[in-house]
Amino acid sequence: MTITRKWRRAGCVTISLTVATVPSQIPLIGFSEDVEIAWEKLKKKHRLKQRMHTSAMSTEIHHQTHQKQSHRTPSTPKLELEQPQQIAPDLTSRRRPSSSPRRVAPLLKSNTFSEIGSVFLKFRELEQDALEQRKCDVYSKNYVPKRFSKMSKEYGTPKPGTLTEMRAKKASKHIAKEMLYLCEVIQENGYTNEETGNAEITFENLFKIYTFISDKVVGILLRARKHKMVDFEGEMLYQRRDEAKIISLLLSPAELQTAMINLKNPAN
Question: According to the UniProt record, where is the region Disordered (predicted)?
Answer without folding.
Answer: 49-106
